[in-house]
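User: Please run a holo structure prediction.
Assistant: Happy to. Please share the sequence and the ligand.
User: Here you go; the ligand is zinc ion.
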Amino acid sequence: MLFANRWRLLVGFLLPLLGLFACSPGSGPAHEAPLHPALASPFQGEFQVSNVNDHEYPFQFKDSNGYLLSWWGERLPGVDGHQGYDFPMPEGTPLLAVYDGEVTFAGWENPFYCPPLGTTVSGLVVVLRHHLPNGEVFLSIYAHLSEVRVKAGDQVRTGQVLGLSGNTGCSTGPHLHFEMRRRKGTEWPVFDPYGWSSEGEDPWSKHPSGVSSVWLWMEGKAPPLFSEVSLPPNPKPTDRAPLAITRVRYMGVSDATNPNNEFVEITADPRFASTPVSLKGFLLKNKLGEAFAFPDIALEPGASIRVYSGQGSPTGETLFWGRTQPAWDNWGDCAQLVYPSGAPYLLGYRSGCASVQGLGVLLKEEAGVLQDAHNLPLP
Ligand SMILES: [Zn+2]
């Protein structure tokens, strides 16, 4: 009887809701079939991301709150109000259709003034229109290409090469600018194919001009999102360090709660390490002075080992700091491999090593900040 009562309660609760949906005017989402993951990656392999889709207010040159609000709710540095994702990559990387569709534009966008370059420019752009199985219409946009291999009116299939990546238009470095739009009446608001997974409602979906975002990547097809700085060991002719920091991955999705989405890579440079190098007595420090002490293991010449920030079981190629919080500041940090002698080998980003001085500073590296803008030819 208890069950029957509950069932009656449930039906009594649901029926008015169904009636509400049936009577609601317009073409709200209540009438639409759900969206299912359908997209493939716009490129092969992995490239870091330098600007994410700003969920707080995706209007470039109008937003000025000083950060990008990522789909997992973290405030990140980058081009304020950025629409879509910037993936720095070598010029000439093949760019692929994320879904079956029609080419609505392929060629040079109309020239416009580019603030970061201080001049008027035009870039090569491809725009695809996609009809998803639920009846909704989306655009996918690929910008700053060096070469276009499709033309307006072409039908393309998922994975088809649309052109090659480049650095045309308003761009301060070779990269793919990838963004999507979701049709809303006669408008094409910015849509994030990674969806929104943070607490509370997506600010962009609440905006009068906004639209809600949904995870649309097929399983295993979403481009991974991370930011890192990497260099070969001892890049300067005067450097002679047997052990060097060769990579700092400082931003990964939700690294505030998944600190193993970031790591530091240490490499034994075979030019200066002819025998296995003992890690005993070495420390890894961040700009706050927090330190990880290496265990008593040895690294073969030419070999690398990664120190993940979170917890885990060490292997021959991975160590774990054991933290529950990230170690590396997305807004700038200075990774320091401190030798038993006290001399640090540095790899910094975003001026993170600016305050570190003195003898033993073997390297200072500051990553450039990528900027871009567009004059997109939407249908
Ligand atoms: Zn961009």
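The CA atoms of residues 102 and 155 lie 5 Å apart.
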